[in-house]
Amino acid sequence: PFAEANAEDAGAGSKEYVHVRIQQRNGRKCLTTVQGLKKEFSYNKILKDLKKEFCCNGTVVQDPELGQ
Asked: Which positions fall inside the SUI1 domain (predicted)?
């Protein structure tokens, strides 16, 4: 039974980081960017939940070089 579990979790040891960056704008305003989310996730659903949770605005940016 342990051999099966180890075969399924082979990718669990790889380090894939999610970068959250906060850029200070003028005054008390700031811009938060998130980079490194997996493509399996729905970015629009994540954004919708974050906007509800933190009562803020947000958008998913399409970049030709970096993707979504």
From this structure: 18-68
Total domains in the fold of the chain = 1
The model's pTM is 0.63
**What digits encode the pLDDT tens for the residues 14-37?**
678 989 899 999 998 888 888 888
Tokens 């704008």 belong to which residue? 25
Asked whether residue 1 is domain-assigned, the answer is no
What the block records as the tokens of 14 is: 């790889």
For the record, the structure tokens of 31 come out as 């811009």
Q: Supply φ then ψ for residue 36, to 5 degrees.
A: 105, 10
Domain that holds residue 26: 15-60
